[in-house]
């Protein structure tokens, strides 16, 4: 495993801030007022897209490979944010997260073809299949259980069909197309790389047939998941890359990192006596549950320590790391300057010196 | 009442003039030396994409006094949602009029995308809702709902979209859509709801427009036919207790003199392939109507001038609807004033090439309008009208 892993940042879809509970960057809460005697130029100039654009620029300047805009039913819409991020960058790959119920597969593909044209093919998809049933019904989706995978299967089949084949016709349970298919210049573009997730058999079977990257979470059993998915993909004659969504808190040394973690824990309302310890076996810290979202597990430590944790996942076969860290702009810079260089290959270092 | 004047942004490339049907902007034709966005530099593609050109058209029409731009949607075009989202941050006052057919996007997703766009633009999103079109193309889109049913679906679509707009929880059980506990999250909720321009010439469309439209939008037709259509909409709307305003989508070819304008048309006409006379396609009533105003075949281009300055041959010189205005700046302004007199409250103007003609029409035609005060869109035109006052 000598290949340099791919690092992405997670875009905040419902505000951002230094304080783990504040969301005033990106217009999700009022900014704190300045004293009355201080001239305040901020009125009306900082909308949500101003902050998202700033996150995108930071990620790009910091040398990250991409940005994930997750499907967030309680947040901003991901395809719109992705379009702005792609337009404001040159190199960043942007993954837009959504579910199969948002549109017909033809329309999702059509919209995506435009974004591919505008941006040199830098849009990727993450399809969420196993939505919380309450969220799904609020989005007009009443499918349950295995039907959701069957529908996602058709969705991806049709989207790829119209993308790659002129005169495409399809007759399925969920979708129908007659003499479809894109024409130049909407034809012949790279299809968005498909990211899928989930550990249950239906999810792995779908990934084996359609995923370019399967995203795991640190709480899942990656050994079993990767082995199972690898076998299924091989049986389909395909290869799937493995990714990990990973909250990180990396600082100069262990002591500083844990001091920061304690500070965030307290700001998020955690009692000092409840401050959780990292799992002695995996090194994963459950305290992210409070500061990064329910159930989140991630790595806390020195840059070298976090890099060692990432290398352990890389040894399992993970090549894509979707990192999350708040506040997103500052942390993207930090990761780009301090963590990513630890993964530069010898040839990259030499190239950097030459210039 | 102030009149909103929009420009059109071509979402499938553009030609440098009406003289020849050559698409040199965008890659809808092979990219060769002389092509723009993408272009060729040192024998290779220059890395630009068509969105750069659309951004130029948006900025040009914004600074020329247009309130916004229509982004059309067809199987072969770029997608208007993608375009609006990409360009949202590159203009300041410009409204993005997104053409779409309900049914391709789920209404909850359309509400989410719209609210995020409203937040990104400070409320500059406008809808052009199309329900008709159809024919074979409808199944190209993967849509199997019949023509008249599509209007029923549009009604349900807007019920759900408006239902979730201000938050939740919203429940709905219709023929086409069902949601439970739906609603936009804070603070996406309660954004200004986009104005609705509603297109469609069939009876079903006119009935639906009465219920949902802020503006009933028509292609240009001979003025008496347009007036009759408006009367129909007024009648249907009055029965429902609503009163939509009217908007017309018009191609304009305006020059300093009438002769110069017709000379431009004549040069284009010389290259029209006689076999290219388009045939009716699909179940669009609007298209059939526009073909019925002229008796084919036609030999001379002026035979398509059905009344002064109203010319029905634009579809032969570029893709799109047949009717537009041809004449001097003053004549075109007079015709637009006449339409204002018929009750038109908004225009979507267009000209080929869209970039250069946006400057021309904005600078030369709009200032001549007398009908009503034109809504001032840009700081530049605001300053000019202040200095004239």
Automatic annotation (TrEMBL), chain A:
GO terms for molecular function: alkanesulfonate monooxygenase activity. Residues 46-319 form the Luciferase-like domain. Transmembrane segments: none annotated. The keyword Transit peptide does not apply. GO terms for biological process: alkanesulfonate catabolic process. Residues 1-48 are annotated as: Disordered. It comes from the Bacteria. Keywords: Flavoprotein, FMN, Monooxygenase, Oxidoreductase. Pfam families: Bac_luciferase. Its EC number is 1.14.14.5. Residues 15-33 have a biased composition (Basic and acidic residues). Gene3D superfamilies: Luciferase-like domain. This is Alkanesulfonate monooxygenase. It comes from Sphaerisporangium krabiense.
Automatic annotation (TrEMBL), chain B:
Its EC number is 1.14.14.5. Residues 37-344 form the Luciferase-like domain. GO terms for biological process: alkanesulfonate catabolic process. It comes from the Bacteria. It is an enzyme of class 1 (oxidoreductase). One of its GO terms (molecular function) is alkanesulfonate monooxygenase activity. Keywords: Flavoprotein, FMN, Monooxygenase, Oxidoreductase. Pfam families: Bac_luciferase. This is Alkanesulfonate monooxygenase. It comes from Sphaerisporangium krabiense. The lineage of its organism: Bacteria, Bacillati, Actinomycetota, Actinomycetes, Streptosporangiales.
């Amino acid at each position: 495993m000598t290949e340099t892993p791919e690092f992405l940042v997670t875009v905040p879809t419902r505000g951002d801030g230094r304080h783990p509970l504040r969301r005033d960057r990106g217009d999700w809460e009022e900014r704190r007022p300045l004293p009355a005697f201080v001239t305040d130029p901020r009125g009306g100039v900082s909308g949500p897209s101003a902050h998202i654009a700033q996150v995108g620029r930071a990620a790009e300047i910091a040398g990250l490979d991409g940005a994930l805009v997750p499907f967030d039913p309680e947040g901003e819409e991901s395809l719109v944010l992705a379009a702005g991020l792609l337009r404001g960058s040159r190199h960043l790959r942007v993954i837009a997260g959504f579910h199969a119920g948002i549109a017909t597969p033809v329309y999702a593909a059509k919209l995506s073809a435009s974004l591919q044209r505008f941006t040199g093919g830098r849009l990727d998809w993450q399809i969420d299949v196993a939505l919380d049933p309450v969220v799904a019904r609020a989005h007009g989706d009443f499918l349950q259980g295995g039907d959701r995978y069957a529908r996602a299967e058709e969705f991806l089949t049709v989207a790829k069909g119209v993308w790659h084949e002129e005169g495409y016709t399809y007759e399925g349970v969920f979708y129908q197309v007659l003499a479809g298919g894109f024409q130049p210049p909407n034809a012949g573009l790279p299809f968005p790389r498909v990211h899928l997730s989930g550990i249950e058999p239906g999810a792995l079977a779908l990934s084996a047939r359609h995923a370019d990257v399967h995203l795991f979470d640190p709480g899942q059993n990656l050994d079993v998941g990767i082995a199972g998915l690898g076998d299924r993909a091989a049986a389909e004659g395909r290869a799937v890359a493995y990714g990990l969504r990973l909250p990180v808190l990396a600082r100069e040394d262990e002591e500083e990192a844990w001091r920061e973690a304690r500070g965030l824990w307290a700001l998020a309302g955690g009692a000092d006596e409840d401050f959780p310890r990292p799992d002695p076996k995996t090194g994963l810290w459950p305290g992210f549950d409070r500061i990064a979202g329910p159930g989140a597990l991630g790595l806390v430590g020195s840059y070298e320590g976090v890099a060692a944790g990432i290398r352990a996942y890389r040894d399992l076969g993970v090549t894509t790391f979707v990192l999350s860290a708040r506040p997103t702009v500052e942390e993207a810079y930090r990761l780009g300057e301090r963590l990513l260089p630890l993964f530069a290959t010898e040839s990259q270092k030499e190239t950097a010196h030459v210039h | 009442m102030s009149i909103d004047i929009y420009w059109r942004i071509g979402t499938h490339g553009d030609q440098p003039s009406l003289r020849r049907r050559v698409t040199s902007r965008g890659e809808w034709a092979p990219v060769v030396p002389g092509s723009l966005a993408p272009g060729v530099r040192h024998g290779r593609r220059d890395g630009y994409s068509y969105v750069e050109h659309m951004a130029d058209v948006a900025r040009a029409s914004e600074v020329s006094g247009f309130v916004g731009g229509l982004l059309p949607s067809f199987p072969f075009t770029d997608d208007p949602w993608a375009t609006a989202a990409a360009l949202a941050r590159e203009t300041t006052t410009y409204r993005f009029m997104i053409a779409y057919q309900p049914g391709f996007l789920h209404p909850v997703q359309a509400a989410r995308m719209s609210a995020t766009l409203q937040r990104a633009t400070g409320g500059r999103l406008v809808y052009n809702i199309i329900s008709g079109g159809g024919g074979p193309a409808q199944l190209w889109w993967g849509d199997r709902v019949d023509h008249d049913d599509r209007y029923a679906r549009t009604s349900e679509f807007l019920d759900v979209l408006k239902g979730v707009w201000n938050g939740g929880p919203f429940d709905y059980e219709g023929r086409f859509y069902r949601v439970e506990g739906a609603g936009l999250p804070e603070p996406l909720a309660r954004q200004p709801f986009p104005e609705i321009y509603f297109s469609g010439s069939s009876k079903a469309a006119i009935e639906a427009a009465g219920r949902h439209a802020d503006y009933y939008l028509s292609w240009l037709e001979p003025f008496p036919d347009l007036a009759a259509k408006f009367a129909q909409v007024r009648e249907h709307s009055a029965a429902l207790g609503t009163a939509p305003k009217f908007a017309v989508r018009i191609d304009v070819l305006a020059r300093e003199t009438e002769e110069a304008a017709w000379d431009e048309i004549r040069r284009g006409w010389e290259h029209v392939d006689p076999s290219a006379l388009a045939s009716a396609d699909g179940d669009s009533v609007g298209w059939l109507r526009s073909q019925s105003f002229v008796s084919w075949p036609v030999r001379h281009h002026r035979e398509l001038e059905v009344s002064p300055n109203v010319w029905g041959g634009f579809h032969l010189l570029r893709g799109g609807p047949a009717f537009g205005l041809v004449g001097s700046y003053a004549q075109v302004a007079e015709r637009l004033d006449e339409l204002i007199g018929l009750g038109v409250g908004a225009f979507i103007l267009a000209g080929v090439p869209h970039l250069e003609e946006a400057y021309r029409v904005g600078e030369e035609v709009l200032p001549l309008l007398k009908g009503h005060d034109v809504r001032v869109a840009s700081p530049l035109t605001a300053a000019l009208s202040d200095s004239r006052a």
